[in-house]
From TrEMBL:
InterPro entries reported in the protein's UniProt record: Otopetrin (IPR004878)
Gene Ontology annotations of biological process type: inner ear morphogenesis
Gene this chain is encoded by: Otop1
Any Pfam family hit: Otopetrin
Transmembrane segments: 26-47, 53-72, 93-117, 129-146, 229-250, 271-295, 311-333, 354-379, 506-528, 540-561
GO molecular function, one term: proton channel activity
The protein, known as: OTOP1 protein
Family according to the record: Belongs to the otopetrin family.
Membrane topology field: Multi-pass membrane protein
Location in the cell: Cell membrane
PANTHER family associated with the record: PROTON CHANNEL OTOP, PROTON CHANNEL OTOP1
Record organism: Asarcornis scutulata
Annotated Gene Ontology cellular component terms: plasma membrane
Keywords, sorted A to Z: Cell membrane, Hydrogen ion transport, Ion channel, Ion transport, Membrane, Transmembrane, Transmembrane helix, Transport
Amino acid sequence: MEKGSGSPAAGGSCPQKNAEILSSQYGINLFLAGLLLTFAWAVHAVGISKSHLLSYLITLMFIQLLWMLWYLCRSCTQRRLIRDKDTHAGARWLKCGITLFAVITLILDSFKVGYYIDFSNCLSPTEGIFPVTHAAHTILQVYFLWCHAKDIIQSFKTLERFGVIHSVFTNLLLWTNGVLTESKHQLNEHKERLITLGFGNITIVLDDHAPQCNCTTTTLCSIFSQGIYYLYPFNIEYHILASTMLYVLWKNIGRKVEHHQQHKTPFKFHGITVGMIFGLIVLTSTIAVVVVYLIQIGRSKVKSELALTMFYLHAIFVLALMCTAGVVALLIYRLEDRSLDNSKNPARKLDAELLVGTAAGSWLLSWGSILAIICAQAHPKYTWYNLPYSVLVIIEKYIQNLFIIESIHREQEKANDDIKTLRIVTICRGSTLSLTPSYKEIYNGRATCDIGELPCLVSSSICARESDGGGSANEETNQGNSPVMHSASEFSFYSRSSVADNKRRILKNIAAFLFLCNLSLWIPPAFGCRPEYDNGLEEIVFGFEPWIIVVNLAMPFSIFYRMHSAASLFEVNCKT
């Protein structure tokens, strides 16, 4: 077993760096092999079938299952040992989120099992084994992340690096497989709708992977086949969240942490009513727009154009509100003088990198739409709404990224030094009793001094207890001065507290509003409301196949950005 300590100059540091490099290269090659296999199946390469891809994924999941079982058993035998923990990793709300997505993923697996049973005469056995293996993998992985996401591994570090990185890229390949399957389904629906918008010159060739046999129960087959694609967005989010949590665990292997008290930041609804109300209005209206869009699009050319116009107008309004809220939050930060926390934190660094990296997906789509509008020879009326929409998408993500990244890097506000020196001495019948009001009372200005109480604002000292002999005289003196007169310093302290409290309340409402807005903007692309497909203008300028490739590559990152932003904003709300 390897030692978990040692100076940077120690001999063990070089082998551990090599182990990190080797494990990362192993994971990348594992991913590239699976990626090429997935691509070969998608383009119907000769000699490559879906069973080959599923066999590869089943093997990877089985290896990860063995590693997780070994890790859990070893941890159980060493449960009495005190281990270092990364308090920033694996937040409870993140675990609850991944658990919710995992439950829906299990429902998806059950649908796949039912689908396989109905088409068992012409489907490969791997299509029945895969959902069963995936369900077992999901259950054990969620349990593993709940129990060990915060671990800082200091033993068997070389072996654990390979085990964790294997798990990271296994989840990334499962995410890729889900994205591709869902994208192929969306593409088939898009090809069928294009003709209604008047783009008859585009050849419609459906990419069909349907079974070549009849279903035993037609009604159940329809339910399973349609339900699967509505559940895929949750499965996709589950695997990308799992891979990010496992990546943080991998980065924490052998890490040295400072042992300090971590402040708990629970989520509270108090004080964010305004932000929640406006956010819920946006969420409700977005769901209504998506429902109408999916019903109207593809019915006729007129209805499709009205659906696109409705979507663009709603999105422009929401994005404008989000930009305004983000600018207000940044202006409040500029008025405050608070230092940034630049300590090493893998979870926080990954959050910032994911925000910028995944935003590039929607930026690519937006710039493609802007260029198409500029270069197109004909402009249907509804396409002009695409221009302000695309510009606002770029600006909104830019502002929101600045707000989130600065928020997660700002140090938490500590109690003012004046609070530490504030003591209230109660004099009652010649005896003294030192009382310290709670932080909440002092901060909100509710620490009042009744008759017989005397504020004692002294630095590095405590009010001396009066002697028994002089108690009577001092009692009379104190009773005479019982109406407490706040000093100028106290008044200034309460004023600063009130201003800071108002700023914090505004920031919490903005974070809550943006949280719900990002959830709202995650819903349309995740459930098939994609104007990038249905607009048609980009396909004329860039060509059908090139633009569809761009959309299929960029859209998964755009969808993940919204969910990751919502998670980050939830953390900002708790921290503010």
